[in-house]
Design goal:
By secondary structure, the chain is an alpha/beta fold. It has helices at residues 2-6, 10-18, 22-27, 34-40, 64-71, 93-100, 145-152, 180-189, 206-215, 243-251, and strands at 49-51, 81-83, 106-108, 134-137, 160-166, 178-179, 195-200, 202-205, 221-225, 238-240, 255-259. The protein is globular, with a radius of gyration of 21 Å.
């Protein structure tokens, strides 16, 4: 099998490597010869993307050792996309991630928890991660306006932002919720934004949506969901858009989704390949 692989040209070998899980690519291939070592240790072998989600499993599994091992593959420093699973996140994990993967453009935090605690997403500022185009986090508990503003300010390259479960983690948080003020900041900071999805403890009106429309001419998809786990009262979470604002959205051809179903319990999703 190895001899047959060596008969293939580099482009074909890289295409094969991109279809394999990271562990499989890094296991036997690295021991075969210098040529395969060089190819398998390049960002091209991973399609410039590292998927750590399938290494998830136990929610208390530390992610730092995993990052350090996989960063050895990023010898050319050109990995631009990282997807994470249900890993344990420490107060210095973000700094380690951005140091190990300095060219990040796309980040999917998956079901990682406690990402914002301790530093309020300041470690995700434009100064720390200047090339960010896509940011997704489906377990964004304890995330509120000031934290997300730290992430989006100055993001002239940002095209996609997905945040779900943006609410207090039970009774542990004194300040939660995303408001018009966040949409106003996004409107002044993210001119290339195409897709925005916010779900959780929202307090949004037409004022914020209109500011978003004004500042984001490329916007094509807007999803606002007031579905929450812990905030059950209707007046605690809302997205109120006037008919005039809806008309403006429709005139722009923007896909608008407003939902308000209540979530009865958390759905823990383990990472998959």
């Amino acid at each position: 099998m190895c001899l047959q692989l060596l008969d293939l040209d580099d482009d074909v070998l890289l295409a094969i490597m991109q279809t394999l899980r990271v562990k499989l690519v890094r296991g036997k291939l690295l021991l075969v010869c210098h040529r395969l070592l060089k190819l398998a240790s390049s960002s091209a072998a991973l399609g410039c993307h590292v998927d750590l989600a399938f290494l998830g499993g136990a929610k208390n599994r530390a992610i730092t050792p995993i990052l350090e091992e996989l960063a050895k593959l990023n010898r050319d420093g050109l990995i631009t996309s990282v997807k994470l699973g249900n890993h344990s996140w420490g107060s210095t994990t973000t700094k380690k991630l951005t140091k190990l993967f300095p060219a990040l453009e796309s980040v999917d935090l998956g079901t990682a928890k406690k990402v914002a605690r301790g530093h309020g997403l300041l470690d995700w500022s434009v100064a720390a991660v200047p090339h960010l185009r896509s940011f997704k986090w489906c377990w964004a508990f304890d995330c509120h306006d000031p934290m997300v503003m730290n992430l989006v300010r100055g993001r002239v390259l940002l095209e996609e932002l997905h945040l779900t479960h943006c609410e207090g983690d039970g009774g542990h948080s004194t300040s939660t919720g995303l408001t018009d003020e966040l949409l106003i900041v996004i409107g002044t900071s993210c001119p290339k934004l195409r897709k925005l999805q916010l779900q959780g403890h929202l307090m949004i009106t037409s004022k914020g949506v209109e500011a978003l429309l004004k500042g984001c001419p490329a916007l094509s998809t807007l999803t606002l969901s007031t579905s929450t786990i812990y905030h059950k009262l209707p007046d605690q979470s809302f997205a109120r858009v006037t008919d005039e604002c809806r008309d403006a959205i429709e005139a722009r051809g923007i896909q608008l989704t407003l939902t308000s179903e209540q979530i009865t319990k958390p759905t823990y999703r383990l990472g998959v390949d």
